Amino acid sequence: DSGVTQTPKHLITATGQRVTLRCSPRSGDLSVYWYQQSLDQGLQFLIQYYNGEERAKGNILERFSAQQFPDLHSELNLSSLELGDSALYFCASTGTSGTSTDTQYFGPGTRLTVL
Amino acid sequence: DAKTTQPNSMESNEEEPVHLPCNHSTISGTDYIHWYRQLPSQGPEYVIHGLTSNVNNRMASLAIAEDRKSSTLILHRATLRDAAVYYCILRDSNSGYALNFGKGTSLLVTP
């Protein structure tokens, strides 16, 4: 158990809809990273938040957004969903804003299926 | 971003040592080499990291070539629970030190 929790575990929705994925980092960790894992693209970095502020952006679509709240949990919002958004979404947390040596602790993921 | 190259898959017998190679010929002097693994139906987990010297921890050993253009993750005695996808990753500041996973090596362990 990494100490990172994600809800829900599974989500099934229809094209065009909007969903929110939730991540609670390990106790004391200030950074949350979001990743998407699909069959064709593999594991890709989406976005990072550190202590409530956006820190870095990866291959995140404009239809996707995220935020980190004062209690440090984070939410990833996916809108106007397409079939290709079906994937596993992982969050990871670290205690720093990002270094070459820190360890990222991953949650169990949310499996999103868009029908 | 500096890239890594790994074999798509490898196979090992249980209780045998496993050497998982990684090439990173464009590595910069400040890039750390990290290894993560992803067991079936789980999120990735940290295995080990290093800069220049070889490293050991309870999970594995990391052997880094003198020119740093390649490295090898060593599992000393593979168990069935070590069957996973192993990712060799270079950390840099360009993306906030996010992990750039690549395709990894799928390790099959047979009894």
Structure write-up:
- The complex is a heterodimer of chains A (115) and B (111).
- Chain A is an all-beta fold.
- Chain A has strands spanning 5-7, 10-13, 19-24, 31-38, 42-50, 53-57, 64-68, 74-78, 87-94, 105-106, 110-114.
- In chain A, the strands form two sheets. In chain A, strands 2, 4, 5, 6, 9, 10 and 11 form a seven-stranded mixed sheet that branches. Chain A has a four-stranded antiparallel sheet with strand order 1-3-8-7, with no helix packed on it.
- The N and C termini of chain A lie far apart (31 Å).
- Chain B has 111 residues and is mainly β.
- Chain B is 0% helix and 45% strand.
- Chain B is built from no helices and nine strands.
- Chain B has strands at 9-13, 18-23, 32-38, 45-50, 55-56, 61-64, 70-75, 84-91, 105-110.
- In chain B, a hairpin with a 6-residue loop joins β3 (32-38) and β4 (45-50).
- The N and C termini of chain B lie far apart (39 Å).
- The chains are: A mainly beta (115), B mainly beta (111).
- The A-B interface holds A 2, 4, 33, 35, 42-45, 48, 55-58, 90, 92, 97-109 and B 30-32, 36, 38, 42-46, 49, 87, 91-93, 95-103.
